[in-house]
């Protein structure tokens, strides 16, 4: 197991990293050219747009997923009837392939067939809602689909976290007369740090590698307005036969992931230290 | 049948094996629209009818996806039997790495040197005296597909050139039609742009631009005009354009909702499947009727080296089938393209194909495909730029032209 893990992850990552400093075309070669690929990468308009999009998409979709996911989890925690049914409904989008999710949303948002055409058909001739075909708004169309897709998972993880909180805590809070919303926000929320961190990391990694949603919904368009780093990498190491540049881009994508994992480790380490000290 | 016996015998002799048994040949291609499927079925049916060997169909939508899948299979050590590519530099490294089946013995036996015309179609496969692929058709990438009822409704004649279309577009718009239908995928945008370059600059200057990367032409006011025309066309396109497939776009012309689409001659297959008649329902027009031209893009099939001699025999048989006169006629009529050889019976050809063949007869009208000179990396950069230019109306024309020139200056 350890061998496989090291072989697959560490060696492959080092290999990719090395290739990013070469002039590899379709097949890997070890003709080192220094930072040329990185220079080209950061002067490529499409890459700059991709990175920018990743920030917009990431901040909005992770933020919304966490907040809405927690609210949904609290809602599910109220011992509602048909909890299983609701949980299935919220989780269902995640169970579906992003390609299908993306296509459905693309049709809903298509100006000629979707929502806009339907509402206009009802007599509102001036109604205009087609975010995907406008360069300035297309990325927000993706965010909507991303939230719809990902919020169920955040909810499920955080619901598990909520359920893991000792019921004695609730009783104590009740006796002290603390309102329910305050208990949720100030007592329970900090206690489920693990669940929140897990949901957060999962969302982050999902954002960094977002690929199929974009391909299905916009193919990176209009123009290059919704390009994402993962599409850039895949396209360059395959059809465009420029492995060197693709690997440089992949290395840039790895950086935030490494930072995030480092952050997680650090927080866990600090929590352990605290526990040992107390 | 005699020819196939020769081929089979040759293949077995070539491999030093006497056992010939049935084999499957997996073929990766990107022919997924209605007209394209009709065409690729010709290959599959004719090959299956020859005997025990079977065509195994792996259709992957969109050329770049299909090529990416093929490349991944090759790199993973499990190449398909055959795969579709566009002629040019897309597979130069596959040849260099020795991954392709050498078709030279078969080509010499059948005399491909003499039968394949024009030379620019043979060149991408016939490299340093060896044949590495089978050209199956000649596609002219730049035609204006016009809806005759749409232009009647607007009360104007069919356009004679791209600039003429721009001049007539307001009339179409007044009639409630989409004057210019454009699919929003970057390859479609770049192809339409490439056609307008030829129409505006002429073949000679265009070759200097794309082959020699001539910076004077890249920065010339004539080239600025190409960007201006393209932006004019954008004004007359519809909001559903982003991300739209080429065949859904053709459908707008086919159903008389749009006036013109600039697309390769493969669009003709869609009109054919829908039962439309050239000259009555639709017209195929050169981008510049005064100086008509055909570009010589097309499709080729690569055959990958296999361990199993039976598969290799079947591969050679498939290669021979694809280029045989009868299959060339049936396939190209269905596909809307032109055959790669002159000696086929084209009595089934319709007016559009005949017009193409007529233009092809004069070598001065034949435009070399830009793929012969530009790597996928360079073409990709152009696609990104043109797609951005099309989508972003605020992007200054001067900036776009400057970046186009830079891509050419740094092209490998």
Automatic annotation (TrEMBL), chain A:
<dbReference type="InterPro" id="IPR035906">
    <property type="entry name" value="MetI-like_sf"/>
</dbReference>
<comment type="similarity">
    <text>Belongs to the binding-protein-dependent transport system permease family.</text>
</comment>
<protein>
    <submittedName>
        <fullName>Carbohydrate ABC transporter membrane protein 1, CUT1 family (TC 3.A.1.1.-)</fullName>
    </submittedName>
</protein>
<keyword id="KW-0813">Transport</keyword>
<dbReference type="GO" id="GO:0005886">
    <property type="term" value="C:plasma membrane"/>
</dbReference>
<feature type="transmembrane region" description="Helical">
    <location>
        <begin position="183"/>
        <end position="208"/>
    </location>
</feature>
<feature type="transmembrane region" description="Helical">
    <location>
        <begin position="85"/>
        <end position="108"/>
    </location>
</feature>
<dbReference type="Pfam" id="PF00528">
    <property type="entry name" value="BPD_transp_1"/>
</dbReference>
<feature type="transmembrane region" description="Helical">
    <location>
        <begin position="245"/>
        <end position="267"/>
    </location>
</feature>
<keyword id="KW-1003">Cell membrane</keyword>
<keyword id="KW-0812">Transmembrane</keyword>
<dbReference type="InterPro" id="IPR051393">
    <property type="entry name" value="ABC_transporter_permease"/>
</dbReference>
<feature type="transmembrane region" description="Helical">
    <location>
        <begin position="7"/>
        <end position="27"/>
    </location>
</feature>
<dbReference type="GO" id="GO:0055085">
    <property type="term" value="P:transmembrane transport"/>
</dbReference>
<dbReference type="InterPro" id="IPR000515">
    <property type="entry name" value="MetI-like"/>
</dbReference>
<feature type="transmembrane region" description="Helical">
    <location>
        <begin position="138"/>
        <end position="162"/>
    </location>
</feature>
<feature type="domain" description="ABC transmembrane type-1">
    <location>
        <begin position="51"/>
        <end position="264"/>
    </location>
</feature>
<feature type="transmembrane region" description="Helical">
    <location>
        <begin position="47"/>
        <end position="73"/>
    </location>
</feature>
<keyword id="KW-1133">Transmembrane helix</keyword>
<keyword id="KW-0472">Membrane</keyword>
TrEMBL record, chain B:
<dbReference type="InterPro" id="IPR006059">
    <property type="entry name" value="SBP"/>
</dbReference>
<dbReference type="GO" id="GO:0042597">
    <property type="term" value="C:periplasmic space"/>
</dbReference>
<keyword id="KW-0574">Periplasm</keyword>
<comment type="function">
    <text>Part of a binding-protein-dependent transport system for a sugar.</text>
</comment>
<protein>
    <recommendedName>
        <fullName>Probable sugar-binding periplasmic protein</fullName>
    </recommendedName>
</protein>
<dbReference type="Pfam" id="PF01547">
    <property type="entry name" value="SBP_bac_1"/>
</dbReference>
<keyword id="KW-0762">Sugar transport</keyword>
<comment type="similarity">
    <text>Belongs to the bacterial solute-binding protein 1 family.</text>
</comment>
<dbReference type="InterPro" id="IPR050490">
    <property type="entry name" value="Bact_solute-bd_prot1"/>
</dbReference>
<feature type="signal peptide">
    <location>
        <begin position="1"/>
        <end position="22"/>
    </location>
</feature>
<keyword id="KW-0732">Signal</keyword>
<keyword id="KW-0813">Transport</keyword>
């Amino acid at each position: 197991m350890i061998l496989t893990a090291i072989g697959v992850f560490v060696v492959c990552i080092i290999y990719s990293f090395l290739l990013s400093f070469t002039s590899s075309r379709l097949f890997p070669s070890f003709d080192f050219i220094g930072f040329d690929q990185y220079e080209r990468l950061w002067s490529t308009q499409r890459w700059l747009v991709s990175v920018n999009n990743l920030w917009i998409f990431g901040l909005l979709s992770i933020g919304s997923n966490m907040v809405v996911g927690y609210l949904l989890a609290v809602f599910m925690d109220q011992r509602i009837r048909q909890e299983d049914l609701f949980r299935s409904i919220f989780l269902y989008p995640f169970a579906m392939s992003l390609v299908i999710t993306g296509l459905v949303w693309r049709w809903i948002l298509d100006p000629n067939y979707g929502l806009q055409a339907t509402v206009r058909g009802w007599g509102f001739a001036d109604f205009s809602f087609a975010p995907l075909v406008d360069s300035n708004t297309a990325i927000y169309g993706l965010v909507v689909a991303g939230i719809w897709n990902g919020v169920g998972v955040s909810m499920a993880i955080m619901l598990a976290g909520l359920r893991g909180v000792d019921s004695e805590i609730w009783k104590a809070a009740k006796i002290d007369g603390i309102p329910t919303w305050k208990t949720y926000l100030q007592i329970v929320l900090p206690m489920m740090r693990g669940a929140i961190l897990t949901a957060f990391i999962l969302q982050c990694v999902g954002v960094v590698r977002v690929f199929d949603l974009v391909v299905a919904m916009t193919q990176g368009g209009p123009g290059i307005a919704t390009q994402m780093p993962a599409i850039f990498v895949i396209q360059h190491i395959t059809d465009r036969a420029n492995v060197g540049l693709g690997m440089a881009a992949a290395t840039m994508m790895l950086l935030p992931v490494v930072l995030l994992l480092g952050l997680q480790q650090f927080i866990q380490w600090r929590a352990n230290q605290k526990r040992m000290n107390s | 049948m005699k020819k196939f016996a020769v081929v089979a015998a040759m293949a077995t002799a070539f491999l030093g094996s006497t056992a010939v048994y049935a084999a499957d040949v997996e073929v990766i291609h990107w022919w997924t629209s209605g007209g394209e499927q009709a065409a690729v079925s010709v290959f599959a049916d004719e090959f299956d009818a020859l005997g025990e060997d079977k065509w195994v169909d792996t259709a992957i939508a969109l050329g770049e996806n299909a090529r990416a899948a093929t490349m991944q299979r090759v790199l993973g050590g499990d190449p398909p039997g055959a795969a579709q590519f566009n002629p040019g530099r897309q597979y130069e490294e596959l040849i260099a790495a020795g991954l392709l089946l050498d078709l030279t013995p078969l080509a010499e036996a059948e005399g491909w040197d003499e039968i394949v015309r024009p030379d620019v179609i043979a060149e991408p496969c016939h490299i340093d005296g060896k044949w590495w692929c089978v050209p199956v058709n000649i596609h002219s990438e730049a035609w204006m597909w016009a809806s005759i009822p749409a232009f009647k409704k607007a009360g104007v004649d069919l356009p004679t050139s791209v600039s003429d279309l721009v001049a007539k577009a307001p009339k179409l718009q007044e009639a409630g039609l989409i004057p210019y239908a454009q699919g929003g995928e970057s390859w479609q945008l770049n192809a339409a742009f490439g056609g307008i370059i030829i129409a505006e600059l002429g073949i000679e200057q265009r070759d200097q631009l794309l082959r020699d990367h001539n910076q004077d032409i890249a920065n010339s006011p004539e080239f600025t005009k190409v960007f201006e025309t393209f932006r004019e066309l954008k004004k007359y396109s519809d909001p559903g354009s982003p991300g739209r497939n080429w065949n859904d776009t053709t459908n707008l012309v086919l159903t008389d909702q749009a006036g013109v689409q600039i697309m390769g001659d493969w669009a003709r297959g869609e009109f054919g499947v829908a039962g439309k008649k050239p000259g009555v329902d639709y017209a195929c027009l050169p981008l510049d009727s005064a100086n008509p031209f055909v570009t010589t893009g097309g499709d080729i099939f690569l055959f990958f080296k296999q361990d199993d001699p039976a598969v290799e025999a079947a591969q050679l048989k498939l290669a021979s089938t694809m280029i045989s006169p009868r299959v060339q006629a049936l396939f190209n009529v269905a596909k809307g393209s032109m055959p790669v050889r002159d000696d086929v019976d084209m009595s089934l050809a319709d007016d559009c194909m005949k017009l193409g063949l007529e233009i092809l007869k004069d070598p001065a009208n034949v435009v070399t495909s830009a793929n012969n000179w530009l790597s996928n990396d360079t073409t990709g950069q152009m696609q990104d730029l043109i797609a951005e230019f099309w989508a972003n109306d605020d992007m200054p024309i001067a900036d776009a032209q400057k970046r186009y020139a830079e891509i050419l200056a740094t092209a490998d």
